[in-house]
Amino acid sequence: MNDEYFMGQALRQAQTAFEKDEVPVGAVIVIDNKIISRGYNQVETLADPTAHAEIIALTSAFNFLGSKYLPDATIYITVEPCLMCAGALYWSKIGRVVYGASDPKNGYLHVTKETSPFHPKTNLAHGVLHQECAALMKSFFQQKR
């Protein structure tokens, strides 16, 4: 199993969000090649602007492990995290963040171009299955117009 495999699993979560008329972002958290939590955007469903895929996956992982830190975990997110989610990832001390598509409008890089919002020990990778992740977002917003 590799980054593409786990990003594919995050894409499945994003597809679930798409089908529920939510912005199609999905996330999975992995430790030792095992998915320990999953999440997809549920902002509309829960009427909660903080119900992003990353937050839901993080909360589930914390509950599963009984810990507030995830130094041995990797989160796979279909779209670049927003600043709120980047902050939550910082406080989780997650070991690695991997995302697919960039988000020039709402992603953390839009706000923090010069410094990383993640914990200093967090490794970052991006562009994994970029085209597939971006295509799902593009399709969703084309339907809205």
Automatic annotation (TrEMBL):
GO process annotations (BP): tRNA wobble adenosine to inosine editing
Swiss-Prot/TrEMBL keywords: Hydrolase, Metal-binding, tRNA processing, Zinc
Q: What is its EC number?
A: 3.5.4.33
**Role summary:** Catalyzes the deamination of adenosine to inosine at the wobble position 34 of tRNA(Arg2).
Provide the GO MF annotations for this entry. tRNA-specific adenosine-34 deaminase activity; zinc ion binding
Listed under catalytic activity are: adenosine(34) in tRNA + H2O + H(+) = inosine(34) in tRNA + NH4(+)
Record-given protein name: tRNA-specific adenosine deaminase
Oligomeric and partner information: Homodimer.
Residues annotated to bind Zn(2+)? 52, 82, 85
Family the entry assigns: Belongs to the cytidine and deoxycytidylate deaminase family. ADAT2 subfamily.
Tell me the CDD domains matching this sequence: nucleoside_deaminase
Q: Which PROSITE patterns match?
A: CYT_DCMP_DEAMINASES_1 (PS00903), CYT_DCMP_DEAMINASES_2 (PS51747)
Q: Which InterPro entries match?
A: APOBEC/CMP_deaminase_Zn-bd, CMP_dCMP_dom, Cytidine_deaminase-like, tRNA_aden_deaminase
